[in-house]
Amino acid sequence: MSSRFFERSDPVAFAGEDSRDPLAFRFYDKDKMVAGRRMEDHLRFAVCYWHSFTWPGSDPFGGETFDRPWMQGGDPLALARQKADVAFEMFRLLDVPFFTFHDVDVAPEGASLQASIDNLKAVTDLFEEKMATARVRLLWGTANLFSHKRYMAGAATNPDPDVFAYACGQVKAALDATHRLNGENYVCWGGREGYETLLNTDMKRELDQLGRFLAMLVEYKHKIGFGGPILIEPKPKEPTKHQYDFDAAAVFAFLQKYDLLGDVKLNLEQNHAILAGHSFEHEVRYAYANDLFGSLDVNRGDDLLGWDTDQFAMSAGEMALVFHEMLQHGGFTTGGLNFDAKIRRQSIAPDDLLIAHVASMDTCARGLVAADRMLADEALTGPLRTRYEGWESAENRAILSGERDLESIARRALDLDPQPRSGRQEMLEGIVNRYV
């Protein structure tokens, strides 16, 4: 069974802005220095295993459209090995530094939990062998606790304690595999940790279960010496009507309640932010404001569709605002930019997988450069500083430090006549456009 999938054999290279080759980088020059670091070290791109190699092109109204030989039937472990061959070939062709996976993306589920764990160990052996000679590393691993019907009512939040226990076994195995492969983070996405109706839901019980589940995961992380953070990926809905990790703010409240701050950070996704009624920039800024920033999934939705379409990020302006936030805080530490994105159902040529990643990597590179230029020119930070400069006086700093009480401030207000000042929103939006 041949693992040959892509026609090209040479890695995609930087060709410059004048290139018209869809399989050449126009803006992503990995060794270019931006804000004191190589572009590759800022962006830390990762290819995800699930959408790239396990999604067949189906949608709610139609079946598969993609030709994926490793999904056509046969010995499950042999097919997993063939899929891994194609995946690592793609990592080489794109020259990406990282990849990500769910357990069931890379290894077939067995007839029992032990059989599934054995399959995952076998694929981990294969990955370890391949990674020894490849430049790609593991950004993060995770367990799929949402696809199998056993998880239809949740995993950690399930009313059945046996399902809770099964999820513990699956997550332990996935973290073990991640640790063995020197993964830099471990992600938890609570796809069905929520409810369809409150009529059959004990919310407090389910939240307590979820809190205990994550606490045990953190305890085990420390026990085995896994050095990276546990990351929670917020999403407000879909597949459930309401998910407990609704957005960054909801997760922050949850982590405070269950004493998980410090060990748990956020993996933020562009499209999940939109579904929660926020911008990607908002979620990133909130995460930094509360010391929760971890990693990013870079995939967008469609303005005309209200669901999670998982399209590749193609707006340099949107990404510039995200990088503007990140560069002010030093950027990634263990995190990266994971392409949790699908090519469209009609993009059936094998090279479409490569082209989509190349185009989105270029988009991110343009956004990074624009953000760096805006910061160097203080294009946005200057007006922002001016807007709040009144708080820098000694008297007003004394208010925030607790040196003034309500009565003293109220007496001072009797001599004041504050006047409105322009927020200059359109001017600022125009500034952003000039840089991107």
Automatic annotation (TrEMBL):
It is an enzyme of class 5 (isomerase). It is found in: Cytoplasm. Its EC number is 5.3.1.5. Its main location: cytoplasm. It catalyses: alpha-D-xylose = alpha-D-xylulofuranose. Mg(2+) 1 binds at residues 233, 269, 297, 340. The active site is at residues 102, 105. One of its GO terms (molecular function) is xylose isomerase activity. Its cofactor is Mg(2+). It comes from the Bacteria. Mg(2+) 2 binds at residues 269, 272, 308, 310. Binds 2 magnesium ions per subunit. Gene3D superfamilies: Divalent-metal-dependent TIM barrel enzymes (3.20.20.150). Signal peptide: none annotated. InterPro entries: Xyl_isomerase-like_sf, Xylose_isom_bac, Xylose_isomerase. Keywords: Carbohydrate metabolism, Cytoplasm, Isomerase, Magnesium, Metal-binding, Xylose metabolism. Belongs to the xylose isomerase family. HAMAP family: Xylose_isom_A (MF_00455). Homotetramer. This is Xylose isomerase. It comes from Fulvimarina uroteuthidis. The gene is xylA.
